[in-house]
Amino acid sequence: MAEALQASSLLSPLSSDGAAELSSPVWQEIYLSGLRSWKRHLWRVWNDFLTGMVPASPLSWLFLFSAIQLACFLQLDPSLGLMEKIKELLPDWGGQHYQLRGLLAAALFASCLWGALVFTLHVALRLLLSHHGWLLEPHGTMSSPTKTWLALVRIFSGRHPRLFSFQRALPRQPVPTAQETIRKYLESVRPVLEDDAFDRTSALASDFLKLQAPRLQLYLHLKSWCASNYVSDWWEEFVYLRSRGSLMVNSTYYLMDFLYVTPTPLQAARAGNAVHALLLYRHLLNRQEIPPTLLMGMRPLCSAQFEKIFNTTRVPGVEKDYLRHLQDSQHVAVFHRGRFFRLQTHSSNGLLSPRALEQQFQEILDDPSPACPLEEHLAALTAAPRSMWAQVRESVKTHAATALEAVEGAAFFVSLDSEPAGLTREDPAASLDAYAHALLAGRGHDRWFDKSFTLIVFSNGKLGLSVEHSWADCPVSGHMWEFTLATECFRLGYAADGHCKGQPDPALPRPWRLQWDLPEQIHPTISLALRGARALSDDVDCHVFPFSRFGKSFIKCCDVSSDSFIQLALQLAHFRDRGQFCLTYESAMTRLFLEGRTETVRCCTREACHFVRAMEDKEKTDQQCLALFRVAVDRHQALLKAAMCGQGIDRHLFALYVTSRLLHMQSPFLTQVQSQQWPLSTSQIPVQQMHLFDVRNYPDYVSSGGGFGPANDHGYGVSYIFMGENMVTFHISSKKSSTKTDSHRLGQHIEDALLDVASLFQAGQPLKCRFRRLGESSGYRRGSLSSKTVDPRVPTASTNF
């Protein structure tokens, strides 16, 4: 995702020119990492205590205490004499308080026993969660040991685990061996390097292993013992917060609304329901009532990233940004036609109803007042290079502190767009591309890119989300977005006239218009930031197309991983587009471990290259290509599982590089590794809460995924989402200024590649399910071109629930 671009530009904040930024000894960095980890741990313990979750539910302690009292009533001593010794240690308050001393002794014994049991349970659960053998088993099978392991995990997890219930039981991410990481790295670059270049790289790697790796490994192991995660805090700091480029496109991604359906055409109504649904999600989040995410329904994932979804702002700094997170916020900041508003979301009775929120949004839409000087394009500063924005922000804070605090202290940012968006019947392809572009970049001045996310509501009621990447990765914001779409559409619903349900409140106070009393001296900076933002926005080429010939259902019939199927088709499509192989970035999560974030899966393997070359060789038969395809799929799955188990390549090399820079140690090998570019960056948008959507009865009510900018000026960014069982939606981005890339051209190659790969299974063996041929009866062969088709369905004007 957007992290691929940030990772490829890592040399900039860690260059020799900025060595002063890393002047602190490596010991101090490790100490600070450990200190930050313990602060977060203590804060979570305190938060859990306030919510009645630490170290376990109070009801469990009460049950244990009651059992001990019952045993004492039956003249049994479950403490084996310990309670009598505790009584002797208590002060003697006289004979009349003998029973009170007994109760206190029982309570103390119950507390000690309760704590010991909880600690034992957490240790046992951590040992169980450290097992990853189940992930390495063949797809679709489960051995008897895995079934036993799963049963034990469920027993020790409790009946109703909450969002953060597993945090203290999750294992820490292991530090791979340097030898294994280097071996995997050399394997990954072999397909894209000439012989001479590969020999030079191998020599650098050999020298690194002999001279520098042992010392660097020692420091990483020390950090892994002190901190919650040996790499995640450095990843957040050096890849994101120290990056000095624009956040727009480079460190943002977007999520779309339903593709074919718009529940109401009323902009204010859709905004009211969406904001209400988002704040309902925040309420569940604060109470930890969101169920923890389980991988494959079995293994809990780390939930640490959920903490910063709301009330979070990335504050710019001259050398380094920082994330400011508030415990609570009872308003949202709203932007409309160059004006900023503070909209109160709560009253003395709690969260405002959707109809009350709609009423306030409508007042903003109806407000005829013009934008003040410098206000209309002020948000373009958040799209400027971070050092520039940091310097100007001091002036903005001095002259308009109240307004700036209202924006940065908001739960999130809302942009009421004055233009419609979404799929249209007149030009479906162009309308989807424009929709994606509006979400990714907008006009350059109508998003506050510093906020954790911006809710975008278009004039025709279409929704979208623009998300800043530093605080969390896509699955976390995607989980929130799925809940929002399902809640605002199915649970809250709309009245027959398209308005939110309920009645307006005439006593509700109007939204507060923010005043920006800014000095004229910052006008040139705003103008410069706006020109830069518009230039970047105009340079992005977005293309979105729903592929409806087949989907996950057909791929399942092929007995192949759906993600591997798409990744190999992307390799084939990119080779046809560029005529060469390249380093390919696929984002995989490492949330099996405490505070894990992502790892890179290098999809351009030797096995994938052999398959692609065979597909382009007309002398190869379908059976030969299919055999090579399955070998490449197995290799991709092995890399994906290794990355998820903490045995990937790139995060380890990144941590080694940061450590070398902290030690002022020059490493030609690590410098070469970190200077690599990713011409093809890919990511799958997962659908995590299928129970919220009735795909069978309402197949159109599924999010159409999202996308991100390219990680390279001459590269592509490709994301995809499986919509139901019979559709895959692709989001492609590239730079218009590049003569080597074209998002629409790659889209055509992707569609052709998918059909060609699918035809191998059609010709190779009979299947119960077959993909739709749309008029073709003989199937699609390698090298054939098919005309791109777009599903004729269009959005409905309004749907009631």
UniProtKB/TrEMBL annotation:
- Residues annotated as domain Choline/carnitine acyltransferase: 174-751
Superkingdom as given in the UniProt entry: Eukaryota
* SUPFAM superfamilies in the record: CoA-dependent acyltransferases (SSF52777)
- Assigned keywords, A-Z: Acyltransferase, Fatty acid metabolism, Lipid metabolism, Membrane, Transferase, Transmembrane, Transmembrane helix
Q: List the membrane topology term(s).
A: Multi-pass membrane protein
* Annotated region described as Disordered, given as residue ranges: 779-801
Spell out where the chain crosses the membrane: 103-125
The residue ranges of the Carnitine O-palmitoyltransferase N-terminal domain are: 1-46
Q: Pfam families this protein is in? A: Carn_acyltransf, CPT_N
Per its record, how is this protein called by name? LOW QUALITY PROTEIN: carnitine O-palmitoyltransferase 1, brain isoform
